[in-house]
Design goal:
The protein is α/β, with parallel strands linked by helices and about 200 residues long. It contains eight helices and five strands; from the N terminus they run H-H-H-E-H-E-H-E-E-H-E-H-H. A five-stranded parallel sheet has the order 3-2-1-4-5.
């Protein structure tokens, strides 16, 4: 099933990838959204933030703090949906400890590369990063105890598919900790056709 949002989905995904590749490669650039470690500090990120390598933290482009919904427990299996440069994944990896695991998934190759480099620099072996899309997760049913996500679901037109996949990969009784953008009024037909409103 495809969702008609009044914009070419392939073009939309291409523009989103371009925007976030730029966040990965040019974190010092001004974007229409806040980025970087200082932004994460303002959002009240947990103490583990101080251990996240600078290159990863400077490419942080989240919208809020999913950890404000609760700390992750030792040994939990976590999926970071739209992991970007890996900041939330690395914080999660530190919280769940070596007996837990974190899988970050993102559709932007440049972000995956930066996240992998950050995990190596931090020296955590309980986190992996996978290239893929939230609407078709490449994981078995009931693979995770927790799904975290930060500022990603709002970028995806087919939210039913995303939440269906989250439900599928969560262990029964699992939980989601999502930080995202919401709107109070429906977006006009014209507004939905503006790629810039989707990407930033």
């Amino acid at each position: 099933m495809s969702v008609d949002v009044g914009v070419d989905i392939g073009l939309l995904k291409s523009e989103i990838k371009k925007t976030y590749a730029s966040v990965s490669q040019e974190p010092e650039k001004d974007f229409v959204f806040p980025t970087g470690r200082a932004w994460a500090v303002d959002l009240g990120y947990p103490e583990e933030l101080s251990q996240v390598p600078d290159p990863v933290a400077e490419s942080f482009a989240g919208v809020a703090n999913p950890f404000s919904l609760g700390r992750l427990g030792a040994g939990e299996r976590v999926l970071d949906l739209g992991s970007g440069a890996g900041m939330d994944s690395l914080v999660a990896a530190l919280q769940v400890g070596p007996e837990g695991s974190v899988t970050g998934i993102d559709m932007t190759p440049e972000m995956i590369e930066k996240a992998q480099a950050g995990a190596r620099e931090l020296g955590v072996g309980n986190v992996i990063f996978v290239e893929g899309e939230a609407e078709q997760l490449p994981f078995k049913d009931a693979s995770f105890d927790v799904v975290i996500s930060n500022g990603v679901i709002d970028l995806i037109p087919d939210k039913d598919a995303v939440f269906g996949e989250i439900y599928r990969v969560l262990e029964p009784g699992g939980r989601i900790q999502v930080a995202d953008v919401t709107i109070q009024q429906p977006v006009s037909e014209e507004g939905r056709r503006k790629i810039d409103l989707w990407t930033g």
